[in-house]
Amino acid sequence: MTGDLFKRYVWLIDVVNHAGKLTYEEISNLWERSQLNEDHSPLALRTFHNHREVVESLYGIKIACNRKGGNYYYIADNEGAMHSSKLKIWMLQTLSNTRALNKISSYQSRVLANVNPDEKFGLAATIEAMELGVCVKILNSIPMTADHLTEFTIEPYCVRFWGNSWYLLGKRHGKEDMLVFDFSRILNLEISDIEFTYDESFEPVKFFENYYGMDVDPQLKPVAVRLRIGDGTRDLIRTQILHDSQKEVMADYDSSIFEYRLVPGEEFKRRILSMGDDAEVVSPQELREEMAETIRRMAEKYTR
Length: 304
Known about the structure:
Helix content: 25-40%
Number of helices: 9
Low-confidence stretches: none
Distance between the termini: 66 Å
Radius of gyration: 23 Å
C-alpha cells in the first residue's frame, strides 16, 4: 500500500468518525477541499465504495450506510465492538501522525508534545501475557498495599490509557482484589510461566463505568453527584465530558448543573478543584462539605 492511499483511508475514517454521519455528497465535498487532494477533484462514487471495502477488510472498521435515514454513512458498531473500533481509529490516527512527523524535519521544533519515554514500559510484555494467558511479575516503585508490598504476581485483565499514562488493571494471583498499576512507576515487568484463567464474564468498560479515571475502589458505591459549572467552563464540559454518565440537568444564562453517577474519588475531586471558582459541588452534601474543607485549608496557606 502506498503512503498516499493509507492517508486517504485514514482521512475517510477520520471525517466520518468526527461527523458521526455524512452523505456521500458531503464526503465528496470535504474531499475536494482536503489538502490531500492536490487537484481538488471530486471523490468518484466507485472510488469511495472501494475505500470503504478496503477500510473494512484491512482494519476491521465498517463504514455502513443508513439507507432508510437519508443515505447517511457512519462508523458501524460491529457486534457491540465500538470500543474496539475507537481503539483502531486512534491507532491509525497515531500512525498517520507519525508518518507526517517523519516528513517535517525542517520544523519539528514547532510540534510540541509532553513525552515520558518510560510511561509505556512493560506495555508490550503485558499485552503478550494477556494473549498467552499467563501472569506478569511486577516490581513497583511504590507500595500498593497495606503491608507495603512492591513485588507482585499479577493476572493482567486489561490495559487502559488515561491522562498521560498507560495503566494495568489486574488481580493478584490467587486473590480476588483488583489492583491498578501505572506503567510509568513500574521498575521491572516480566512475563511469567504461571497460567491463569481469565474471567470471561469480566467487562473492562463496565468495570470502569462507576469510576473517574483510574481511581478504583470496589468497596465504594457510586452516588449521584451534581456540579454547578460556570459559563466560562461549561461549553468545554459539554464537548469534553468528564464522565460517561454526564447529564446536563439545568441551564441558566451564567451556569449549568451537570449530574454524574460515579464514585467521587480523589482524582475526581482534584478535577473539580482544577476548574477553580467555575465549579461548585451542589450535592451530595457530604462531598460539598469535604470540598469546602479542602478549599478552606488551601486558602489558609495564602493567609498566613
